[in-house]
Fold:
Amino acid sequence: MFKKGSKAYSIAHKKCPFCHEGAFFVDDNAYNLSKAGDLLDECPVCHRKYEPEPGFYYGGMYVSYALAVALFVTIYVAVQVLYPESPLWLYVVLILGGLVVFGPWMYALSKMIWANLFFKYTGVELTPAEREKAAQRAARRTAQ
Ligand SMILES: [Zn+2]
Structure:
C-alpha cells in the first residue's frame, strides 16, 4: 500500500525507520502483553541503533496521547451519527472499551511514529557520513 522509503511504509509494516527491512519490535504482535512495545536494541539488517539516548521514547507519550484523543473523537462522532439518542454511559463504556482494546496497538504505534519523526530512511548501506563517524569511533577506541 505504501512505497518503501516512505515513513508510512515503516510505520505500517513495523520496520526499521532507517532501512525499512529489519524488524523494529521484539514481537510484532502488539497484543503479546509481556513484550508489548519492547524494541530491539538495533536493526537486525542495517545494525543502526534504535535508541539514540536513554529515555528517547518517553516522547512517544505525546504521540500516544494524540492517538488516544483521535480514538476518543472517532468513537464519540460514530455514536453521535449512528445512535444520536444514546445515553452518556454508552459513550463512557465504548470509549473506555476502545482504549482497552486499542491500547496495546496504539502504544506500539506511538513508538513507531516517534522513531519515524526523528530517523529518516537511508537504506541498508551506511551513508558516507555514518561511515566516517564509525571510523572516528573505531580510531578513538584504539587510541585509548
Ligand atoms: Zn535497519
Observations:
- Helices lie at 7-13, 60-82, 88-118, 128-143.
